[in-house]
Design goal:
The chain has about 425 residues and is mainly beta. It has a domain of about 45 residues. A hairpin with a 6-residue loop joins strand 2 and strand 3. The longest helix has 13 residues. The chain starts with 7 loop residues before the first helix and ends with a helix. About 35% of the residues are buried.
Length: about 425
């Protein structure tokens, strides 16, 4: 079977965070540069805008987002600045981050600045993944406060893994305090939303780091792991301070980030894969956990060599349904929790998809005369398609030149 074309990785849009506003879907695409508004009746693009100063083909420029009034706030992952988009005026505002202090530079990755976000009243919070701070932004004035006192508190932990992320996925609000999962330690940061004071809480779970949290209708906190033994899932009865753990089958060795934060719905808990290949449902029967694999026909084995090797994207519960995308095929799904029915759709942007391919290739190969890349990073037909094109122009018809290009490219492997 013919493999997926390189253009399709830029045509079929996916995103780490999709939110609804006034009946439309809004998101920053994860597989190309763009803010998109999509009609939820036919899933056609209504409008799109480009992030300034970034390449069209860049992956994961922005991660999560928040909508406040007529403004959308995008947390930068690879991008250099926070982006704020006004849906009425169609104008973008960019806000620079303060420089990284010297003592945090070794653990800071500029391609993984922020991931998770949340909103409280008129404030938007962006949680540092490797950026050493929580940003609190006034959604009306765009004034920024940096919350970073917690950095000194986690320094006392002899074992910490910043590569797992300062803050991971999900949060649980309890009154005027919010619990935030930390990947770098087995801890939750309790943040007082009024005072900005923080405290680290270490739940008694068998995890190296916390990958995500969510609360159910009974007030229990469900926790997924990160790092060593990430297949552990725990339920924490915070009122009684009681824990119950179970293990989830993981089909990939050394998988340190298996799942997104749990999705809780009417006594059922759903786990969607990041870097593993299966989705699960957990139910509680007579006090025991019952684990079932779900959605086997649409949640397929991930492409480990893709630019975006995640198995699924943006799983969210919306009006009794779970909406998510699958990375292998770029297809979006709506899983109706009451009926079990699944609806599928693509979100497609054909414009400049081929130009994105060559821009991406040039970024990878640089100006080297030899087109060399790691085995498995591209399917062979895609790789040769690029190699045979003279001056990165497709559809070369001169057979002599095609053969010469292949010869010189292959020479780079000897």
């Amino acid at each position: 079977m013919k493999g997926k074309r390189l253009e399709d990785y830029f045509r079929e849009l996916v995103s780490m965070d999709v939110q609804d506003k006034d009946g439309d879907m809004w998101f920053a695409a994860s597989n190309r540069n763009g803010i998109y508004r999509v009609n939820t009746e036919n899933y056609e693009i209504v409008e799109k805008h480009r992030f300034e100063g970034e390449e069209n083909s860049e992956f994961m420029l922005y991660h999560d987002m928040e909508i406040y009034g007529n403004r959308i706030f995008f947390a930068p992952h690879k991008a250099e600045k926070i982006a704020v988009y006004d849906v009425d005026s169609h104008e973008e505002t960019y806000i620079s981050l303060k420089p990284i202090e010297e003592k945090y530079r070794n653990s800071y990755l500029p391609t993984q600045k922020f991931a998770s976000t949340f909103q409280d009243e008129r404030y938007v919070y962006m949680l540092g993944y490797t950026y050493p701070a929580i940003i609190k932004m006034d959604a009306e004035t765009l004034e920024i406060t940096y919350i970073d006192g917690w950095l000194e508190e986690i320094e006392k932990y002899t074992t910490k893994h910043i590569s797992y992320g300062y803050f991971t996925m999900g949060n649980v609000k309890r009154g005027r305090k919010v619990l935030l999962p930390m990947g770098c330690i087995c801890g939750l940061l309790e943040l007082d939303l009024d005072t900005g004071e923080t405290k680290v809480i270490c739940p008694a779970v068998s995890m190296e780091g916390i990958g995500g949290i969510a609360d159910d209708d009974d007030g229990n906190i469900w926790i997924v792991g990160r790092g060593i033994k990430p297949n552990i899932v725990a339920r924490w009865n915070i009122q009684e301070d009681e824990y119950k753990e179970t293990e989830i089958p993981i089909d990939e060795g050394n998988c340190q980030v298996p799942f997104y934060e749990p999705l809780c719905y009417e006594g059922r808990v759903f786990l969607f894969p990041v870097y593993t290949n299966c989705a699960y449902e957990i139910s509680v029967v007579d006090g025991q956990f019952k684990i079932s694999r779900i959605l086997e026909l649409c949640v397929k084995e991930r492409n480990r060599y893709s630019h975006l090797p995640m198995c699924t994207f943006s799983p969210r519960i919306i009006d009794g349904n779970i909406r998510f995308a699958t990375g292998q095929d770029g297809l979006w799904h709506i899983y109706h929790l009451e009926s079990g029915q699944i609806d599928d759709f693509y979100i497609v942007d054909d414009e400049n998809a081929e130009a994105c391919v060559w821009e991406s290739m040039r970024r990878i190969f640089g100006q080297s005369p030899n087109s060399v890349t790691a085995e498995g990073f591209y399917q062979l037909e895609n790789f040769v398609d690029y190699v045979i094109s003279e001056k990165n122009e497709r559809f070369v018809t001169n057979e002599e030149k095609v053969g010469k290009n292949i010869y010189y490219a292959a020479g780079g492997f000897r």
